[in-house]
Design goal:
Blueprint (H helix, E strand, L loop, with lengths): L16 H9 L32 H4 L26 E3 L5 H8 L7 E4 L5 H17 L4 E5 L12 H12 L3 E6 L9 E6 L2
Parallel strand pairs: 2-3
Antiparallel strand pairs: 1-4, 3-5, 4-5
């Protein structure tokens, strides 16, 4: 309801039909009595996440790995991850439909980390800080670019293998899957973090 203007003479403008109807509707309304809060009841506490150091227990949670040993014939061992292999992981309790949406890129990416050109130790430290920061900020989905390992030569994709292992072991990672081609393909992963 718009305020009524007071003319220059200082007298109120005559009430309109809406104002009269409102006043008649609320004529018998009385304010509620103020009741003090009951003593002894605790106020509900906001759900706070435990803020931990991102580098705490990295040796156990995210150990450094050794590059797969090359067989005598110059080929990678059986079961080794190649640069073009897609990565996927789903923790127990995560619905298949959620992972399908993640794989299709339907969950908005809220942050991104590029690990190209880093040593394994530096990549691990940055990844731990990145995951801790985004978890504490309430982020739900992030993208991590690890590359396909083309510059690693015969050793294979060292960072890709390491990121796969680290994300599987990290307690805040609920699921991850290789990204769509437009977002890096098999050289990147979408990561779904614990809510």
């Amino acid at each position: 309801m718009a305020k009524q203007r007071i003319p220059d003479g200082g007298a109120e403008a005559p009430p309109t039909d809406d104002a009269l109807a409102f006043r008649s509707a609320v004529r018998d309304v009385k304010p509620l009595a103020h009741t003090p809060p009951v003593r002894g009841l605790a106020k509900p506490k906001a759900r706070l996440r435990k803020l931990t150091s991102a580098t705490e227990n990295l040796g156990e949670t995210m150990p450094l790995i050794h590059a797969p040993l090359i067989e005598a014939g110059g080929t990678a061992p059986e079961g080794a991850i190649a640069g073009t292999d897609a990565l996927s992981f789903q923790r127990a309790g995560v619905r298949t439909q959620v992972v399908r949406r993640l794989r299709r890129g339907l969950i908005p990416i809220e942050d991104e980390l590029d690990l190209h050109g880093l040593s394994q130790a530096a990549a691990r430290d940055q990844l731990a800080e990145f995951l801790a920061h985004n978890r504490n900020a309430g982020m739900r989905c992030v993208r991590i670019i690890h590359g396909k390992g083309y510059r690693s030569g015969a050793r294979g994709p060292v960072l890709k293998i390491a990121v796969d292992l680290w994300l599987r072991r990290h307690p805040d990672v609920m699921a991850f899957t290789s990204a769509r081609a437009i977002d890096g393909g098999t050289g990147a992963v979408y990561v779904l973090l614990r809510a």
